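Help!! Second protein's tokens look totally different from the first
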Amino acid sequence: MIQYQAMTKRGFSWAIIVAIMMSAAAFLTGSGLPMTGESGICLPSANLWLTSELASWLVNLGLIIITGVSAYFLNKDYSFIPGSNYLVLPGMYVLITASNPWISAGLTSSALLAIANIVCLAIMFSCYRQRNATQEMFAVATILSLGTMTEYGFILYIPAYIAIAIILKCFGLKELGAYLLGLFAPYWVGVGLGILPLDSFRLPTITNLLTDYTTASDLLTGLIMIAATGLITLVTGLNNSVKLYAGNTHRRLLNASLNVIGLVTILAMVFDTGNLLFYVSTLNLLMAVQLANVFALWSRRRGSIWILALSAAYIGAGIAMMKI
């Protein structure tokens, strides 16, 4: 099957440049959406970690780029996207995420969830059909447990990685025990060493997306952007599954694992609407995976045109959301 390049190296370079420009514009215009800092179980949420707004923006931009680059190397190691359209994944993730001023103007927990999922997926992919995956399951559970300290939304991904372990055929009673130990260990160590005083534990504050956001048109644009991303992810994911089902078993199971994360993310956004922004970066990541698979599996001749049109749509929506 002939492969058509949907994104070249030059196109990827432009995606990075435009992403930096969009994120900088969001920061300079103060277009970030206010988020509560009390969404964790015992630690402040990421938006309270840095007092300097400039530092917060720089760290967030760095995490967006690092996540995109990490996704590229994850695919390079495990080839869950076949063929030569490997740059679509990092390029589209970085561009789409930076184009949303709500999560690109400063550091939020959304960026942390995306990079945490990349790390956890890399660990899980490494133990495909492994007889003893206790260390890997312990590591994944520890990462998620640490995440829950600063953002309760990490809890929803705990059962997701059990499902992924089952899909990748590396789950048993020993792995379950290691996973449970990994979940409890950070809290046990934190409380035991006095790092986490008992009075620091609290019920997370449930946020409201509408709080302090007064422009209805900008809010609608942002919600449409997020809804469109979810719809594209679902439709392309279902279409890709048709091709993947008849292909390489290893690749199919890796993509099934990614689909689990995508499904959990979309369901979380539907039922945890007050915490919607937390899941956006991860949704963008899964959309970028599905887009890359579309061009790899279905061999679209005008892939670059579709990528350009989609990028323009997200950039336009991002500019419309900015408080210029």
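Here's the second one for comparison:
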Amino acid sequence: MSTPNDMLRNELLDRRSRLEIVQKNSMDMSQIQDLLASVDHALGHMDKGDYGLCDVCHEPIEKDRLLADPLARLCLAHLTPGQQHDLEEDLQLAAQIQKEMLPKPLVEHAGWVIAHHYAPAGLVSGDYCDVLTSSEDTVSFMLGDVSGKGLAASMLMGQLHAMLRTLTALGLPLTQAVERASRGFCESTLPTHFATLVCGRAHRSGTVELCNAGHHPALLVQGDSIIPLEATGLPIGLFCNEKFLEKSVRLQPGNSLVLFTDGLTEMEDESGRPYGTERLIELVRNNSSAAPQVMVRTILDDWTKFRGPGFKVDDMTLMAIRRKGDSSSRQ
């Protein structure tokens, strides 16, 4: 079985081959020679078995930084002021791009209302959240979680966002869109990368098609009845030829779906007790008639109160989707 270092070695060897090709046709040799020297330095340390250690403190470099840049030679604590400034600028830019990719906080279309809350643990997030109004009679929604954290995970999230937006715009059946996204994700990332994902397509008729690739169950809210809709496949990107199934449910006016990432249910309080799915389900049941934006705000308030003064340890995203038509909904 391949190890992360084997995969990084293959990536470095591929970079070296590409640099050698460019070297033959380039007039400016200095930059290419510097890059080749950096690749050879990394490969040499792989051969010695001490790859991935900081040149200064000899402690392991952060894993997500190595995945994003296999040539990294310093841990975050020992970056030069100039390097720290460049990294901060990259993170700020990535955060701005990610913010602009998010859907509007409240979307109303085709008889549906969708609200969400998106909270990165740091400047950027590996969570994925999107809503697309592709026709007059349907609205598509996606929520997922890319493996890893930090800048590397946010870059992968951006890649997934672009692929699914393009595939959804083509009007493909839901399972085909997810299968193609999974194949593209698998072929363009390291085998250690994958993503859990819920994709849905809600029709004006009340029918919702759901494809759940290894993500937490969506919660179907029908009055006091809360039904977890389990995953229909493995996470995307694990295998390049994955197949996925879809599940169809019909929501009556006033029924809802609640989607979330593990940053919600795995958050621990000061005693180490997780928020948990059972607490979430009970809260949703007690607020089953709430409008989506109220449902999201209620869950967020309870989650914030539960964790107390502790810090967020993971990205957290929450989405509520409701079929319109129930005049008793609390606004």
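Reply: Different proteins will give different token patterns, so don't panic. Confidence is low (pLDDT under 50) at residues 327-331.
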